[in-house]
Amino acid sequence: MRDDFLLSDEVLKLQEQEDYYIPNEIDLRGKSDQDLARYLNEITDSIEVSSENISDPVVFDKILSFLKYFAHLQPRWLARLFDIILSAFRIEIKTTSDDLENNQKETFSNHRHCLELYGFLLHWFLIAVEKNTTTAKITKKKSNQNELKTFDWSNQKLKAFDTASWLLDLKLSKIWTMAPERIAFINLFTKPAYQLFENPVNAKSNRVKERVFRILGLCVKYYDHAFVAQTTIMQNLQYWEHSAEPMAEFLVHLVEKQNYHQLADEILRDISNREFKDIASKEVKDSPNPKTFSTFLIKLVELSPKTILKNMSLLIHQLDSESYLMRSTMIDILGFMIEELSKSIEDNANQMEQINGFFDILEEHMLDTISYCRQRVLQVYLRLFDLKAKFPKRRQAITVLAMRHLQDKSSTVRKYVIRVLCKLILTHPYSMYGGELNIDDWKKRLETLNHEINNSTTEEDMPPFIIAQAVNNDKNDTEKDDSTSQKEDDNKSQHSEGISDDNRSQHSEGVRDSDVQMDMESQQDENKEEEPRLTEDKVSKTVISAEKLQQLILMKTYHEDAIAFIEQIHTCIPIVTQLLSSKSKAE
Asked: How far apart are CA 409 and CA 374, in angstroms?
């Protein structure tokens, strides 16, 4: 068993020493195919018997010799070596997993040593593959050599990271009880994982990213790798522009697959505290690259808007950044936030206040000194106009701004203003009558509504005695009809029987009674004439429900908004007509 192997020291030697020392080294340069095949067969025969034989110094150093002379060997020999190492590594992981489940503590020390040896071999192999893949591009331009330079190692990378993921899923804290030693072992897999992102080809491969994200996610969540991950991600964003989107995708993987939000929160907090300067600035050397960070933030808000929304109070400070790229990025993010909040605006009315705050900021930045930022605001509005929520008040505000910026000094801004006006017309919310924007028709409809509202009232607005009077009038009319019919019957009976002297006197008394009744009716008519004129107006109005009146008032507001919008468009038309003679093709 090899007892002189200390993992942290060996990794340091591999990084710092160009000529890594191997006690039982075999110089494989110039070796024949027969010799190489024999060495590989000896390695296979040894570790196939038991995966623990990797601790044999002769076997281990023989494998190290292949890795040391990686650049001098044909890829078919290296691919075979990889399969041998990976097969034995998997057997060792399976044995370790079984012993962990059975809590066989006496085997943990031996498993730890073997896993460190296999991990070191896999670590060196992945670094050598990436190093030769990177230099292959330069070498290929100078010569026509193929073989190692053009070999596709993607399958080997996927298998290696799948194996590492299986290992990291185990409860390794039982085997590595000391944090420094456990971190040294974990770094065997995290360093090659981060190194992959230095190559743009790997950054575009979904299969590679999926494996790498899983490994890094496990290390962050279970092995105290969060701080190292944060530092590495910020460095990648500083120096590698193509790493912006993969880094954002990794944070989304942590949030959605690992349910780990802390790393994303810390990185966004770090970004919010940084000072960005324009690329043209002389002080740009020491400042972070705003372009890469902008790409990172846009990708993150596209994939996980809630993560950005949660930290918006921190990021909002970048709206005052010296870098116009960061300001335009924050303008774009505000648009995404409005989109996200508008999805649940019906369920949570409090979000409307937040949306209005974001709209206020967008309107303020229409006065940005850089035309690119003003243009970005207009582009955001073009996207927002397609939302289900129409925000009519905000449409009026942007229409006013568009009218103003039709005379912007930037032709690009004017071009987007015209697009915004076209979009406003195409997506306007005034489609009740077929979507036609004829101002005369709308004004006629508004007059009709005003007349209907003025001649309508509700029961709540009418005095109670007016309602009672209407009921009594109906009752009196009924009684009056009954009395008239009774009088006619009495008169007929009196004429048929003959009228006596006494009856004649009674008849004269009846005449006097009718005269009194006529006097009383005339008095009532005089009293009615003395009632207030306001009461007559109330009675003459149509009584409708309060809900119906409210609907009429809302309809009136709707028509007034439509007329205001049409008038604004009419105001813009003369200026747009002038722009037809512009020398700018875009306009």
From this structure: 11
Which residues are 543's β-sheet partners? 457
Cα–Cα distance, 530 to 154 (Å, whole number): 102
Number of other residues whose CB lies within 10 A of the CB of residue 139: 13
The CB density around residue 568, as the number of other CB atoms within 10 Å, is 17
Q: Which residue type does 553 have?
A: I
For 264-319, how does the pLDDT look when each residue is reduced to its tens digit (9 = 90+)? 999 999 999 998 887 655 454 556 788 999 999 999 999 999 999 999 999 999 99
Give CA–CA dist 215/206, Å, rounded.
14
pLDDT-based confidence at residue 65 (cuts at 50, 70, 90): very high
Length of the chain: 587
**Residue 580's pLDDT is what?**
80
Rounded alpha-carbon distances, angstroms, from residue 489 to 30, 111, 356, 476, 498: 143, 124, 79, 21, 15
- Confidence at residue 514, expressed as pLDDT on a 0 to 100 scale: 47
| Gyration radius (Cα) of the chain, Å | 44
> Rounded to 5 degrees, what angle do the CA atoms 174, 179, 182 make?
65
In angstroms, the Cα distances linking 218 to 186, 248, 283 are: 10, 17, 39
- What does the buried/exposed string (b/e) look like for 275-298 if buried means 16 or more CB atoms within 10 Å of the residue's CB? ebbbeeeeeeeebbbbbbbbbbbb
The CA distance from 332 to 294, in Å, is: 10
- For residue 212, what pLDDT band results from cuts at 50, 70 and 90? very high
Residue 19 has pLDDT above 50, yes or no: yes
Among candidates 232, 259, 254, which has minimal Cα distance to 243?
232
| Cβ-proximal residues to 330 (8 Å cutoff; 6+ apart), any chain | 315, 316, 318, 319, 321
Residue for token digits 């009419």?
A: 570
In DSSP terms, 542 is beta-bridged to 456
**CA diameter of the chain:** 162
DSSP string, 128-159: HHHHHHHHHHHHHHH----GGGT---HHHHHH
| pLDDT classification of 122: cutoffs 50, 70, 90 | very high
Cα–Cα dist 301/330, whole Å: 10
